[in-house]
Specification:
51% of the residues lie in helices and 3% in strands. It has 26 helices and four strands. A four-stranded mixed β-sheet has the order 1-3-2-4, with helices on one face. InterPro entries: BTB/POZ_dom, NPH3/RPT2-like, NPH3_dom, SKP1/BTB/POZ_sf.
Amino acid sequence: MYSCRYVTSDLASDIIVSVGELKFYLHKFPLLWKSVLMQKLVQKAAEDGAEDITLPDIPGGAGAFEVCAKFSYGMMVILNAYNVAAVRCAAEYLEMTEDVEQGNLVFKIEVFLTSSILRSWKDSIIVLQSSQSLLPWSEDLKIIGRCLDSIASKTSVDPSNVHWSYTHNRKLALHDRIVEVGLRSHEGVEPVPKDWWVEDVSELEIGLFKRLITAVKSKGRMDGSVIAEALKTYAIRWLPDTIEDMVSEDHVSRNKALLETILALLPSGSGCTCAFLLKLLHISILVRADEDIREDLMSRVSMKLDEASVNDLLIPSRCPESHESTVYDVELVQSILRRFIAMQTVNQGVDIVEKGAGLIGEGIGHRSLLSVAKLIDGYLAKVAHDQNLTLFSFIDLALMVPESARLTHDGLYMAVDTFLKVHPNMAKAERKRLCELVDVKKLTEEASMHAAQNDKLPLRLVVQVLFFEQVRAVQSLKAARSDTSQSVTNTTDEEPERTSSLRHQLSKMILNEGDAGIQISAKLLRKNSRSHSGAQLLPSRSRRIFSKIWNVGKKKSSVTSGSSQSPTSMVVGETKSSGSSSRHRRHSIS
């Protein structure tokens, strides 16, 4: 079924031009004056005795031909960003050039493109989008290339000189915003962000978007972080929101191609955030991207792991439907961390895994290690809630962090505590192995107080915690006494001896967990108090737990030192003194 178009003119129709489903009833003379192709086709039709001329492959279709026909009749035509590319290609197809008549349609459209369209930000994008359906004509006529160059040039303009309209609807947090403070074109006008252009270009088809970003990068004036923001915006615009759509057979090929394009355009260095890279890594796993793509992403993530947050690392497991699978992909995090540690080892020139004592440098590399250690401890605390997480996986990930990178074990302790809560049926040996991860010397006072009252911990660890609480108390007392009057000469002179005695006693501490209970060397808890002030060295909570442990040990074990006394005996009471004043009494703290 054809639709018909007629031109109101004094000239009667003597030719029918068929374009698609439209028939144009025209007079041949106006067309012959403007189009070389129509001259050839009319001559051929006359030779064949036909009245119909068919244009099956004219770019732009019937709409573009209608504009060309109106121009041939001298009628006013309207050109805009939406139809100019199609009309330009149709005019080229019809050969409406200067060879036929001066000021022909091709010439006029070129003037319009140069003087208006390519000077406009949004018009250039509209023309570029419309050119996709006009290939190869739009490519051969350099419409696409000129639009890309125009758009790329405008993205490189100083934001303070951007006075045209653009789309910027993203609601970014303050720390995510890429804005140059003070870039204001007029008083009271919102500053123009450096990434002002990324939303408009995110509407482009993937092939055109790739060419545009390549053109922007080739100019060498765009910051890598802005390029990364453009890629992130494009990914959000075109990648599905749900995992089901991401992996569906109808979309997985397109999503995979889109991912590969984005990865090919990623800026090197510090342009991309670790959070964005981790999201791409998750997508690459979902769409089953090639192994080299996943390897490249993991390498990129490992180089910026210290910038990640715990939530960034919470990537769902590859087989979430399995009852034995963990909720989150712990193996992936282990692989990333392993790469990070290896990279730090190479950069610092030392084996940071083996070097457990002391700090490893004070530079950027060490700061990164500290950040990653804190990150992994936080991650362990999160994944410890998973009942399917094995003890081996938990311990393996915890031990991958160099000992020197953990300035405090509070985060690791909280992760261990969570694991114990979620896995209450652990064997005694497993519980002991898990708790050996925690170094009680690196617990803060708050964490120590929590651990001392934690009934899920092995008694061995509780005693160690109480022991180091006492050590802290001794150190605090020593620091306080160092500021006292020098008139107390005897007391001051005895501090080194007391500290040495304490260390000697602590070295003899024997903690044996088993059916026989806990045995503590008698010399450790020896009553040797000087005054009531000594009772403050051990908090009442700790004294009660020590007393409880001591009593249990006495009931269950027959092997005790004859000189040992209950820890409670060190709390109240004074040492016997023969002829010495209370001023020269001293405590033996154990």
